[in-house]
Amino acid sequence: MRQEKIEYGLLVEAALRQVVRDVLGRLMRDEVAQPHHFYITFRTTHSGVVIPEFLLDRYPTEMTIVLQHQYWDLEVGETSFSVTLSFNDKHERLIIPF
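RE: above sequence
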């Protein structure tokens, strides 16, 4: 009889990542009615995160972005998403892994 440990924490993490991926996919396909807002907090130093240097200086460990009215070119992949946001009236591209 096999006695394998069930890693509930890992299962919940994977499920939550899938929820984020699914919601972002709906936003990307314009399937979400206005008004909406979606807060995403991520570790700025995590492997695969690509943000401008000035944002990394300002947010050295963690950053929260809001996808609500002004975001552009949202692309959702299997392992990450990318989006263009405005900072001080300048558009910047961010890449954030799930």
